[in-house]
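Researcher: I'd like a structural prediction for the single chain below. Treat it as a standalone chain; there are no partners to consider.
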Amino acid sequence: MPDNEKRSFSGRRLNELRIEDVLGGGLSSEDFRISAETLCRQAQTAREAGYRQVAENLLRAAELTRLSNEDVLNIYDKLRPGRTTYPEMKAIAERLESDFDAPLTAAFIREAAEVYLKRGIVKVDQK
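Model: Treating it as a single chain, here is the predicted structure.
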């Protein structure tokens, strides 16, 4: 894809993103967000170069572009050890899969839930 056809998350062509427009307020943070398409291309490149784990991370990142920044930060906060119960972690994974079509990220969180449970670092429900 020629450089003048590559686009940001907002749909602007990359050659339209200029510092003058940032300083003048003509661009927003949406103009600088990476797109799922770009992340998937990067994942393919990583996989072809033999970096399987990097590729998997990039594919999960592509899925997360469907979420708001607030949702991503909220999930990140809940995944810190001791912040969330095992059932809550499973619910986060279910929501990612059903509401955001993010099966790779959901599987990753389900795996984390099992590890957290095994290591005793899930939040204990005080009911």
